Amino acid sequence: MKVHLRKRILKSETPSKPRYSLYLDIYHRKGKRKREFIGINLEPNDSKQTRLDKMRLAENYKAKRLLELANEEMGLPSKEKMERDFISYFREQADKRQGNSKTSWLNTYKHLIKFQPNGISFSNVDRKWLEQFIDHLLTFLSPQSVNAYFTKVKCALNESIKDGIIFQNPARYVKPIKTKENDREHLTLDEIKRIQNVGSYDEVKRAFLFSCFTGLRMGDINTLKWSMIKETNGYGFAIHKRQNKTGNFNYIPLNETAIKLLGERPKEDALVFQMNKNNRSTQRILKRLLEAAKIDKYITFHCARHTYAVMLLESGANLMTVKELLGHRDIKSTQIYAKVVDGSKLTAVKSLPSI
Question: Could you tell me if 224 and 214 are in contact, meaning their C-beta atoms sit under 8 angstroms apart?
Fold first, then answer.
């Protein structure tokens, strides 16, 4: 690439005293040529010093543009990309998501708009701005919720690195948000039986109980098709499905209870569970189901996944097996359930009779 500083003559009232506009003549390696006017004019009445100052300013601009263009050729962020609006880019990333993930991204987008209604360029998204956004969220949200929303912001910034907009993620330098470890609420086997004995809420009840015996998230329940349930020679039936949240392929063997909950297989491929895709509607029905079963716990649909993990560990499964069945990327996510099981063991021991 070559960049030359050139002059172009402009119209003048006195031809003997011409005016000039300075511009950059840019030659790219692929044979493309581009003229870029820099907004500096040499006027007839300029003094010698003024003309020297303008030329020095133009040379500095040329050097800066040469560096920017060289960075572009090497795939490094350009000035034009850095001036792109981050919040608009975040919305584009949100629109690529599906299901529960998309809902969380759109909620984060709403908070970004509220915090920065006029948008912000990538060049101004730094550690200070990110920390101010966190402080803004903490004024009306729990640390757990703030952490969840900020994770989406970090993800969008990582995507912008892949797109060549920024060179590094400023969120790397933001201190982690301190959160309290959540209790992983789960159901006992007796409570599961009480839910099974409730005589209504069939589809939500069936899906929830199926999740208790497979660990599937609601998003995966809603997209589970009969073609994903396959019989393996000598090993019975199993779910072969790519997880909506992580994108990882998961293989989950089905026990007798899970197979009974599936019901009769139709001739054509279809969704296994015909539930309302509105998560709030499902949660409302689940709440009524729990009340009918006389279960006084705060249980969400996701708690079925916790129940599955705890039952596996209580039945003697090791952590690595549970990790694979849940589709966790990190064993640390699975270890949380081991603490729950330890608590159950302690309760059981304390319930022993004294002599």
Answer: no
Question: Is residue 30's pLDDT more than 80?
Answer: no
Give the pLDDT of residue 344. Answer: 65
The distance from CA 289 to its chain's CA centroid, rounded to whole angstroms, is 32
Tell me the helix, strand and coil percentages in the chain, rounded to 5: 50, 15, 35
pLDDT per residue over 41-55, tens digit each?
999 889 999 999 999
Euclidean distance between CA atoms 220 and 327, whole angstroms: 12
Q: In whole angstroms, what is the distance from residue 98 CA to residue 65 CA?
A: 41
How is residue 227 annotated by DSSP?
G
Q: What is the average per-residue pLDDT within 232-245?
A: 83
User: CA 295, CA 283: separation in Å to the nearest integer?
Assistant: 15
How far from 259 is each of 56, 197, 230, 237, 355, CA to CA, in Å? 79, 18, 11, 8, 45
Q: How many residues does the chain have?
A: 355
Which residues have C-beta within 8 Å of that of residue 198, sequence separation ≥ 6?
A: 205, 289, 292, 293
